[in-house]
Specification:
2 copies of one chain form a homodimer. Chain A has 13 helices and 13 strands. By secondary structure, chain A is α/β, with parallel strands linked by helices. The first copy, chain A, has a 7-stranded mixed beta sheet with strand order 2-8-7-6-5-3-4, sandwiched between helices. A 4-stranded antiparallel beta sheet of chain A has the order 9-10-13-12, covered by helices on one side. In chain A, α4 (about 100-115) links the parallel β3 and β4 (about 120). In chain A, α5 packs parallel to α6 (about 160-175) and α10 packs across α13 (about 390-410). Chains A and B meet through β1, α1, α2, α4 and α11 of A and β1, α1, α2, α4 and α11 of B. β1 of chain A pairs parallel with β11 (about 350) of chain B, so a sheet runs across the interface.
Chain lengths: ~425, ~425
């Protein structure tokens, strides 16, 4: 073979860094990987109207939410805070609602249990939507974080994120003259000094994991400082998460390790999945409007047909301010786990939460939050749609549910 | 179509749980996913001679190490401990070496900075191997964790994990009659009550991320309580991590969220990657012995040829007790980043750590640990092999390095 056509020999001698090319390596394989990673970051940033350096890739939605919450609270563990901690009033205070995803709610409870934060859980109204004024009422001098989900995972209700952001802005405006650190103490050397000094708390975080396919993700319009996404809820996306982090927001890494992801998320980047995520998010953005309209029609059709066909059911959560792909009902007296299994036998995959603890299944804190008088025997049944869902699927599902209930009523009445 | 040949219709109405089937769902898609997950868990358990319920899947090696370390320390944040914490002596004490991977070393430093633990870093000897007696000397009444890596990621030295386990066992034996909680206080309600009462500290953790392809992973023989693995270092494995957790060891989850992975790791399981991991680990176990022998021959050949061809180099780390796929050298006076770039231009992908901080590149704490007199201008160059590496690759690499050095010497001498 003439020398000019010879391809340059490629010998990979960096298996200890990673089996595949590692974006942190400086050889040409590493540089290629780095380029791809940064392109993906830009695609995600564009989708959120953010800057690339404001996008942190994580392992998933649970980690994004934990990083957002723990990462805001942890700087206060360093020494100046520790000194202050002996006084009761200066433990950081954080606020959320009573219908958040467990990755937010349980993280709040962990921090409370570990005595690292005081928490306030603002109850939602009976329609599953929180009143922004009630959030504002909870904010105090020591509040470092407000976390309210964009859309609920069980009942699909959409929270008034912009209005909450506005309430927080107003609160900050009135407080501007006060030096935050006089109240809470300096966060210490761990946090970047300048942003901390200038940033006015509380930070506003939203868990947008369920919202990604249907709602506007423009972080400027939403007025949020932190926003979580997960690939597991996007068709074709990889199993990674994203945390949008406004540049000025002080955040600590919660893992010790390397300097990846601007130091906020150590560990070799999951490049193949990140690339899939970016591509899938681009597609979501393109079809969002059309798909939202299509599914909202199906959802309303589902609810209407259900209430005509199946007499004794209760719809959970606001019927208008909800995700277009979410239907959630309670069938009184019939265990919802049983309904899921019966539906599954007919080929319909749905999801249940029971009102009482049975086996592995957890009580639904969401259903309890919107219906204080719910009976122990009542559960909830969730149908959630995607791109492949058709009107025929819904007809079949309602028919199946109707047959199942006719059969079961004999036993449970 | 006659009814008997009709396939049952399948309608997925659980998109909000996950785009793909979620092992936590109770419908038949979920049950399938759950079965696959548990099969994978058993395969991994078998490879380690552990029980399936002792295998926790995480997002990667960095998370496994963080979970092992933070998860042992955190229960002491609960109230009974907090009361005790006012006395100086009872903050948990944790021990590691000075050449650990950043995901261990930086996590230790974070916990120290946050005042959640006191730390001891035991220095390794000049050959890059720690003396087990020196570990034992550091253990005291308040020591809750010893973490020593199985094999080093930079210089490939293998640590005497079994001997360290033996020293810890001896220490425990002498202490058996003493009630641990008289010293450190009860860990509180967060930890499982019984194991905590019976478990004798310290817990012994090893980071086996670099060892997985070549060394014995039998946790019984090793005598470890916690062991970390990462898919990113195994050919064909998915991007997930594993933490082996001996059943009796008390560990807290460090993420708030759902009940996945026995509560130790909330968040939807990354099933596709977990399945790849299990399969790849099975293959590793099968070819380990043969591949280890093959690569050890290549490694020794590489070192011998290097020292014949390139005069002025220094090998880093013990030449015998090291991974068969690791060659690490220092070329005095020549920046190692430059060597990586020159090698890369010739098609050879290697890795560098500089002795001085330059741009994004970190100082190698490992090279500094084994050579206190190293000059600021000296770095280190790592070649790490894998299944595709051949003798011809090594010949080409040594030839290339020799050419590069001949060229560069003019400038740097």
């Amino acid at each position: 073979m003439p020398k000019s056509t010879q391809k340059i020999r490629k010998i990979y001698m960096d298996y200890a860094a990673s089996i595949e090319a590692n974006p942190s390596s400086i050889h040409s394989f590493g540089a290629d990987a780095k380029r791809k990673l940064e392109n993906a970051r830009k695609v995600v940033a564009d989708a959120l109207s953010a800057r690339p350096e404001e996008i942190v890739f994580t392992s998933g939605g649970t980690e994004s939410n934990n990083l957002a919450i723990q990462g805001v609270v942890y700087p206060y563990l360093t020494s100046p805070y520790s000194r202050g901690r002996k006084k009761e009033g200066v433990i950081p205070h954080i606020i959320t609602t009573n219908i958040e995803h467990p990755s937010v709610l349980e993280t709040f409870k962990l921090l409370e249990k570990w005595k690292l934060a005081r928490i306030s859980l603002v109850p939602v109204e009976e329609n599953g939507i929180v009143n922004p004024k009630k959030i504002r009422k909870e904010i105090k001098e020591s509040t470092v974080l407000v976390s309210v989900m964009y859309a609920n995972n069980e009942i699909g209700t959409i929270q008034p994120v912009r209005e909450i952001a506005k309430e927080i802005r107003h609160w900050k405006k009135n407080r501007k003259k006060q030096n935050f650190h006089q109240v809470l103490g300096s966060p210490g050397p761990r946090a970047p000094a300048r942003p901390f000094e200038n940033f006015l708390f509380p930070v506003f975080h939203t868990d947008a994991v369920q919202a990604v396919n249907y709602l506007d993700l423009n972080v400027q319009k939403l007025g949020v400082d932190l926003l979580s996404l997960s690939g597991s809820k996007i068709e074709g996306a990889g199993r990674v998460g994203v945390l949008y982090k406004k540049k000025s927001v002080p955040l600590a890494n919660i893992f010790g390790g390397g300097n990846q992801e601007f130091g906020f998320r150590p560990g070799t980047e999951n490049l193949p999945e990140i690339l899939k995520f970016a591509k899938a998010l681009q597609i979501v953005q393109k079809i969002k409007e059309k798909e939202t309209k299509r599914l909202a029609v199906l959802r309303d059709y589902f609810f209407a047909k259900l209430s005509r066909t199946v007499l004794d059911i209760r719809a959970n959560g606001d019927l208008k301010n909800r995700l277009p792909n979410n239907v959630n009902i309670t069938v009184p007296n019939i265990p919802s786990d049983l309904l899921v299994i019966e539906l599954s036998a007919r080929g319909v995959m749905a999801s249940a939460k029971s009102a009482c603890q049975s086996g592995d299944r957890k009580v639904s804190h969401v259903i309890k939050a919107i219906n204080k008088n719910i009976k122990e025997t009542d559960g909830s049944l969730r149908f959630s749609f995607g791109r492949k869902t058709t009107k025929a699927d819904i007809d079949y599902t309602v028919r199946s549910l109707s047959q199942i209930l006719t059969k079961l009523k004999k036993w449970y009445d």
